[in-house]
Structures are given as C-alpha cells and as structure tokens.
C-alpha cells in the first residue's frame, strides 16, 4: 500500500468533509438546528452549477459564484420558513421539518434535472500533479486551498467583526442578544444564508470528482454529521480538525480493512462518542475558541 | 364514544371492522385499489411502531425504518436461505427486532430528545451500510425469490398470491396492530410511559423507573414495525437496501405527525391520505416526493401539534383580558399620611 | 436624557393563569422607583413585560407609554434602541465573550442625541471591570457580572433603565456599591425602575415605591410615606425570612 498516497488522499478527503460540514456546524452551533436537508442542498448546489454551464455556456469559474448565490437564496428561504420554530427552539420539530425540506428539494430537483447521472465538468479535474510517489488533481489542490481559506475567513469573521460577535451572542443566548438592541432574526438570516452558500460552494468544488445524481444527497453528506459532532458543536476549528481526522481514518481504514464498511465504522465510533460523552452534543456557545 | 353502553360500542366497532374489510370492493375492487389498500395497511402498521415512541414516550426515533427492514430481511433470509415456513419467519422477525431494540435501547438509555434522535439516525446509517455490503444480507442486490405467503396450519389453507388474496392478511395485520396499540395505551406500561413523558421527576417520585420504562416501550414498539416489514417481504417477494430509504422515514413521520399525538386512528389516516395521493393522484416519483416534503414542512410550520389541534383554540387570550378579582385587600390604593387602606 | 414611563392596564398571563394585573404604574423622569414584594409576587414578570422581553412566552396586554409615545407591543430590540434598557435577572452578560466584547457588542441607539456612555465611561464607573477587560464573562464574579450587565445597558444610551433584582447573589457591600452607583446615575438625570427583593437596600436609594402582591399593586407612594406603612414592614419581614 502506498502510504504517502493514502495520507494525501486522507488529507484531500478530510478537507472535503470539513468544507461540506462548515455550514452545518455554524447552523447547529448558532441556531441549534440539525439540518437534515443539508445533503439535498449540496446536491442542488452541484446541479445548479451543472445546469448553469449547460444553459449559458459560461465556464466553471462563473458557475461557482452563481451556485453559491442560489445556495444563499435557498438558505434564506429556509430561514423564512423555519424562523418561528427556530425562535421557539423546538429542536425535534426543526429536525423533522428539515427532513421534509430535504425530501421536497429532492423531488423538485428530480423534476427539474431528471434522473440521469451528470458530470459537473471542471477544467481543474483533468490537470494532474505528480510529486514523487503521490499524485493529485488541480481540483483536489483547489478544494484544499479553498477549504483553508474559508475556515480562516470564518475564524476572522466570528472573532473580529461585529456580525461575528452577534452570531456568537445568538449562539449563547438569543433573548439576551435582543437586549443588546440586535434583531436576532437578521442574525439568523445571515447564518442560514451562510449554510446555503457554504454547502453550495463545497458542492461545486467536490462534485466534479464523481458523477452527480439527484438522489446523491444522503450519501455525500452523511459524514458531515460525524465531523460536526466529533469536532464539537459550534467549534469551527474543531470541525476542521475532525474533518481531517475522519478523512485520514477513512482513507486508511479503507485501504487497510475494508472500503465498504468505512461508513459503519465511522458511525459506530460516533455512537460510542455520543453515548459515552453526551456533553459533546451540548452546544458550548463558545464559538471557535 | 366512552358514554355509550359497552355493547353498543362493541357493535359499532364490529360494524366498522366489517366495513373496513369490504372497503376495497366499495372503491371498485380494481387491482390498483387492492394494491393501494394493502400498502396502506402495511405502511400504517409500520408507522404505529414510531407512533408509540412519539406519542407515548415523547421522542422521535429515526430507527424504525430499520426495524421495518429487519422484519423484511428476517422473513427473506428465513424463507429463502433456510427454507423455514412463514410462521417461523414471523417469529424470527419479532425476535430479531427485539434483539436490535434491546441493543439500541441500552445504548440510548441516557440520551434524550435531540441526542436520542441523532443516535437512532446514526444507528440506521450503520445498519444500512452493513446491509449493503454483507453478503449474508444480500449485499446491494438484496434477496429475491421470496415465496408467496403461506400461513397454512394443518388442513387450513392460508395462502396469498395476488393483492386481492393479500388484502385479508394485510387487513388482519392492521387490526392486530390497532388493537395492540389500543391495549398498550391502557396498560400499566402505557400509562406509566405517559407519566414519565409528562413529568419525569414526578414519575420517579411515584416509584417509576424512567429508564426501564423507556427501554420497555422501545421493545414494545420494535416488533410492530418489524411485523409490517415481515408481511411486506411477501408482498414484494424481494428485499433490498431501498427499505432504508429516507422516503419511508419521511412517510412514517408525516403520517404520525399529521393528525396529532395519541390519536389511535391518526397514523392510519395519515398514511391513507399520503399513499392515496401517490396511487391515485401521482405526480410521478419526484412529484410525489415533493408533495410529501411540502406536506411535512407545512404541517410543522403551521400546526406542529397536528391537524387535531386546530379544533381547540388556546385559552390564554381570554385570561389575559381578565379584570383582577375585586376584593378590598387587593384594590389599588395610594397611601397618604394618616390613612390606612 | 430622562424619560417618563406610564403603564396602564397591564395584564401578563402564562397560558391560562394571570401572573400580573397592574392598573397603573408611573415613573416620573429623573426618579428612582422601586418595586418590592415577596418572592413570586410577579415583580420580574412585571418589569420584563414592560420591556417586552422574556425567556418564556407570556401573553401581554395593556398600554405602555414612554414620554407620551405608545410603545406597547414594540419588539424588545426596538425598545432598546429607543432608550428603554432592561438588565434582566440572572444572566445579563455573555459568558463566552470578554468584558470588552460584551461592552462593544451592542447596536447603536436610534437617537444619537442621547447621552451615550462610552466604554471609558463605563470603566470609570466600574474600575474593576477595566482590570478584567480581556477576561471572559464566565470568569467574572457575581458582583462583577452585575456591574458588567449594568455597563452593557448604559452603552445603549438609555433614557429609562429597568433593573431586575440586581442584588441577587451579591455580598451586602457589593449591593450597597451597586445601588449607590445607580442612584448617582439617577441624580445625573437617568430614570430608573428597580425591582428589588432587598427592601432595606431599596428604601435607601429609591424615591417612590410600589408594593406588589400576587401580581397586583397593594400599595404605592413616596418612600417617606411608605416607610412606616405596616404592609411594608410586613414585606420587609417577609423578605428577610424568605
């Protein structure tokens, strides 16, 4: 087994997990909302980019910001629909309503884009780099760099901007935030829009690797859940580290033991953590520190 | 209903049961009608497993699709791989479900709400992953060639091939499930579960062990969904990983939430509504998914306690406008020197 | 800088039970009015309802006027911008933010003509906060947290400051310092409505008192008049035994 290659694979996969998870972790940490529609939003991000390229003939680099915008819009729609549930912190109903939202998105996508697998064609997917025993594509490199950039930008935004402070306030104590004169539904709007934009961005970067299907929502993001919980809910830095760790675990477990059962292994690990350390599920309200 | 004489109540129930049995014929008796009603019966029976957890324990389990799948897979493996008869398959389905429920119940013993739902979801993913890859369970191809239902005992022939023949069995399953849930809600365990849900600390003061009751309710709910899966295997004659699809999960959740909690016929009506749309007013596979998703979102955003809650308006609005009770000791007074109130 | 508060026909209900029923409550500009009463008398419910703020979701009806303008039903964050500030009971600061961040993290008041307390002004008022300015809210002592909570409120240039039991959990010396600081703010022109369980401390700094029982006003008047009222003495005894 080519260990360096597996490590590189693990790093690439890990960054992908982290990027896909970043919006989810923000939403969960700040609004206590488990977005079961996250996978379908990812799928829509990929398909919107694909459709845009086909419909306008514009290149991939223009399709990406377009998909991000559509994603942000989708997030905004979610906020308008679920604001009442979010404000009343009806956590279980919020979970289920996002399940329904995801189903609706899957149905809509099927109607709009059809059942056939498509390819999100990125020019970077074809460019290969060889460094000694390892190789990777330009798309891989792009995705890793983009992930690091997003995480750094998020750390900065959360800790050094006033909106970031408002987000941290809402994560800790929504009613008290109101007393600071802040309209918390606006803060929620920003958080929801970020989730939509971030997952769409992740989709445009990661999806070129494999064919895309309107039914792929679940498979592509099931790891997100693990990343976020293991990384610590609301911890931006934590989900980066957890993403990387799980990426490496996936690559190595897949190469050494069995590629098929990786999901089971990871989730069994997750169950163990959730049961033995239930405090992991309590939002620390302590973003990013 | 509870004010009527028991004999009259019994007569009404018998009449309704008889009516339900001939329902497919009343709707035209076509293959589609029979198929739809059989599916409604099976899927609503599956939903009752979730309903017990939701209404009586107050939690959302995302594992009941796995119980459903367990029943189906048990039926398939025992009849196809080992050649056992269908009654044995039934016992096997129940046993497998109980075993899984025991394991999962113990794991989730101390988790509540949010955490409980997430752990059950994770467990479903694990089961799904294992089922797709383990050859014993058919892997990603599943298990085909399940023989037609044959529950014959001795000289009494009880077989079912087509939907028309299947209907009595599906209907019987539904009736058994309804009766079981009804008795459960009136049993000591059912009452205890409700008490634990409403006020866990007070329930402990009454000597109830919250954790043990949770486990028992979980164990009770598992075979309900598993039996539905068992029958479903024979109807489809094939089991595969599509049984774990979120579609079943969303369908179950919507039908259970639609009517409201603790309404005996709630899940049945919910399932009937949703599956009738799919059969008789289908908008295609994707269109139906969209409809299902929209219905679930709409219910939770507009009336999260179910449609039944629309009947009762909250009493708070009238209370807030109340004038305070007039009694001299509570009247507003301003004290000036020398005066006493 | 000061505001006049008029509350009429205020009813606050949780579900079917009415927690507060106050026909009239008046706070003259530049005065410190105290609301006292035994535990569970509805003092917190009353003051939270005036600010239209709660951690639960009560039904509130009635008319609230600030300087003659009807502010009933306005969202809490709007009221804050208009100059009505509430320092709630218990958690009034963000544990996960530093002292400095807590003080910075407020929106700008609507009317910049009001006297704004800059961060330096707050530190001048509460010197120990200046020392701990890089510390997280969660690491402060109870007294410091209360000071920070009041400091946060002042940052929004309030005309009317509502304080819900600021003395809870504080050592007597701390209570004295805090309430005297509040009195100084009133003397400088702020209007304050103070809910206090510590009747002795309240009597020392307030101008007018309202005595609440079962959500209704039992008695009200100037402190001089109320001091000798047997019902206040009973409330005082109740408070010291409760």
**Overall form of chain A:** globular
In terms of quaternary structure, what is this? heterotrimer
In which order are the strands of the major sheet of chain A placed? 1-2
The number of distinct β-strands of chain B equals: 4
Mean pLDDT of chain B: 82
Strand content of chain B: under 5%
Q: State the helical fraction of chain A.
A: over 70%
Amount of helix of chain B? 55-70%
Q: Give the radius of gyration of chain A.
A: 19 Å
What's the helix-strand series of chain B?
A: HHHHHEEEHHHHEHHHH
SS element count, helices of chain A? 11
The structure class of chain B reads: mainly alpha
Q: If interface size is counted as residues with C-beta under 8 Å from the partner's C-beta, which chains form the largest one?
A: A-B, 44 and 45 residues
Task: Report how far apart the termini of chain B are.
Answer: 55 Å
User: Uncertain segments of chain B of ≥5 residues (pLDDT<50)?
Assistant: 315-341
Q: Mind summarizing the main beta sheet of chain A?
A: 2 strands, antiparallel
What is the count of helical runs of chain B? 13
Helix-strand category of chain A: mainly alpha
Rg of Cα set of chain B: 24 Å
Characterization of this structure:
- The complex is a heterotrimer of chains A (289), B (341) and C (242).
- Chain A has 289 residues and is mainly alpha-helical.
- Chain A has helices at residues 3-31, 38-56, 60-87, 91-113, 138-160, 162-172, 174-178, 184-206, 217-231, 236-256, 262-276, and strands spanning 128-131, 134-137.
- Chain A is built from eleven helices and two strands, in the order ααααββααααααα.
- Chain A has a two-stranded antiparallel ribbon with strand order 1-2.
- Chain B has a two-stranded antiparallel ribbon with strand order 1-4. In chain B, strands 2-3 form a two-stranded antiparallel sheet.
- In chain B, α2 (31-57) packs antiparallel against α9, α2 (31-57) packs across α10 and α3 (64-81) runs antiparallel to α4 (86-107).
- Chain C has helices at residues 43-50, 76-82, 99-104, 119-125, 127-131, 142-155, 172-187, 199-205, 223-226, 230-241, and strands at 5-14, 17-27, 32-36, 59-66, 69-70, 84-87, 160-164, 191-195, 208-213, 216-222.
- Chain C is globular and about 45 Å long.
- Chain C starts with a strand and ends with a helix.
- Chains in contact: A-B, A-C, B-C.
- At the A-B interface, α3, α4, α9 and α11 of A face α5, α10 and α12 of B.
């Amino acid at each position: 087994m080519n260990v360096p290659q597996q490590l590189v694979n693990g790093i690439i996969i890990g960054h992908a997990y982290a990027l896909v998870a970043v919006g989810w972790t923000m939403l969960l940490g700040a609004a206590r909302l488990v977005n079961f529609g996250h996978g379908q939003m990812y799928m829509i991000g990929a398909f919107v980019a694909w459709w845009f390229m086909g419909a306008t003939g514009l290149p991939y680099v223009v399709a990406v910001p377009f998909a991000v915008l559509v994603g942000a819009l989708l997030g905004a729609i979610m906020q308008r629909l679920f604001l009442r549930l979010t404000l009343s912190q009806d956590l279980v109903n919020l979970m289920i309503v996002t399940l329904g939202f995801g189903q609706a998105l899957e149905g809509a996508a099927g109607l709009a884009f059809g059942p056939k697998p498509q390819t999100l064609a990125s020019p970077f997917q074809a460019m290969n780099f060889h460094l000694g025993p390892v190789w990777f594509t330009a798309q891989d490199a792009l995705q890793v760099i983009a992930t690091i950039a997003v995480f750094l930008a998020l750390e900065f935004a959360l800790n050094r901007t006033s909106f970031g402070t408002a987000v941290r306030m809402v994560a800790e104590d929504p009613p008290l935030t109101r007393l600071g004169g802040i309209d918390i539904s606006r803060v929620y709007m920003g958080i929801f829009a970020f989730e939509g934009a971030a997952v769409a961005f992740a989709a445009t970067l990661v999806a070129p690797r494999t064919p895309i299907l309107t039914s792929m929502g679940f498979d592509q993001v099931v790891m997100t859940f693990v990343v976020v919980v293991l990384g610590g809910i609301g911890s931006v830095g934590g989900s980066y580290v957890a993403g990387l760790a799980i990426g490496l675990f996936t690559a190595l477990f897949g190469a050494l033991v069995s590629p098929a059962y990786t999901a089971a292994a990871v989730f069994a690990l997750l169950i163990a953590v959730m049961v033995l350390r239930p405090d992991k599920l309590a939002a620390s309200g302590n973003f990013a520190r | 209903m509870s004010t009527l004489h028991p004999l009259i109540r019994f007569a009404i129930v018998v009449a309704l049961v008889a009516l339900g049995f001939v329902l497919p014929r009343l709707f035209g008796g076509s293959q589609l009608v029979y198929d739809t009603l059989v599916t409604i019966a099976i899927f609503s029976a599956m939903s009752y497993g979730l309903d017990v957890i939701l209404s009586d324990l107050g939690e959302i389990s995302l594992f009941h699709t796995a119980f459903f799948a367990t029943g189906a897979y048990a039926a398939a493996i025992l009849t196809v791989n080992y050649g056992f008869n269908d009654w044995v398959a039934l016992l096997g389905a129940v046993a497998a479900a109980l075993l899984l429920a025991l394991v999962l119940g113990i794991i989730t013993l101390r988790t509540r709400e949010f955490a409980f739902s997430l752990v059950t979801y994770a467990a479903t993913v694990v089961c799904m992953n294992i089922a797709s890859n383990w050859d014993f369970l058919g892997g990603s191809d599943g298990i085909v060639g399940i023989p037609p239902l044959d529950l014959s005992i001795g000289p009494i022939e009880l077989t079912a091939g087509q939907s028309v023949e299947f209907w009595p069995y599906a209907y019987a399953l539904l009736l058994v499930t309804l009766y079981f849930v009804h008795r459960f809600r009136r049993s000591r365990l059912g009452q205890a579960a409700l008490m634990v849900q409403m006020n866990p600390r007070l329930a402990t003061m009454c000597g109830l062990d919250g954790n043990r009751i949770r486990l028992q309710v979980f164990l009770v709910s598992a075979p309900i969904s598993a039996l539905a899966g068992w029958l479903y295997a024979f109807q489809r004659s094939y089991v595969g990983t599509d049984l774990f699809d979120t579609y079943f999960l969303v369908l179950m959740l919507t039908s259970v939430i639609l009517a409201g909690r603790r309404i005996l016929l709630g899940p049945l009506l919910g399932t009937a509504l949703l599956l009738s749309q799919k059969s008789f007013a289908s908008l295609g596979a994707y269109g139906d998914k969209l409809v299902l998703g929209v219905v679930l979102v709409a219910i939770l955003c507009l009336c999260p306690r179910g449609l039944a809650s629309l009947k009762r308006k909250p009493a708070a609005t009238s209370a807030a406008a109340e004038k305070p009770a007039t009694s001299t000791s509570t009247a507003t007074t301003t004290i000036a020197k020398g005066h006493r109130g | 800088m000061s505001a006049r508060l008029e509350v009429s026909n205020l009813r606050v209900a949780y579900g079917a039970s009415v927690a507060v029923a106050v026909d009239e409550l008046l706070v003259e500009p530049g005065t410190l009015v105290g609301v006292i009463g035994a535990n569970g008398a509805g003092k917190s419910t009353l003051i939270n309802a005036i600010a239209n703020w709660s951690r639960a979701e009560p039904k509130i009806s009635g008319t609230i006027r600030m300087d003659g303008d009807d502010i009933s039903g306005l969202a809490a964050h709007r009221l804050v911008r208009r100059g009505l500030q509430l320092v709630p009971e218990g958690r009034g600061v963000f544990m996960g933010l530093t002292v400095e961040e807590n003080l910075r993290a407020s929106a700008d008041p609507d009317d910049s003509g009001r006297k704004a307390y800059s961060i330096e002004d707050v530190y001048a008022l509460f010197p120990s906060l200046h020392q701990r300015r890089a510390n997280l809210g969660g690491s402060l002592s109870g007294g410091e947290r209360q000071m920070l909570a009041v400091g946060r409120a002042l940052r929004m240039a309030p005309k009317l400051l509502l304080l819900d039991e600021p003395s809870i959990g504080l050592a007597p010396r701390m209570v004295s310092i805090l309430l005297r600081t509040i009195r100084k703010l009133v003397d400088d022109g702020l209007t304050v409505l103070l809910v206090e369980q510590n009747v002795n401390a309240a009597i020392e700094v307030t101008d007018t008192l309202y005595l609440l029982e079962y959500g209704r006003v039992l008695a009200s008047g100037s402190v001089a008049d109320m001091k000798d009222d047997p019902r206040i003495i009973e409330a005082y005894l109740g408070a010291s035994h409760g």
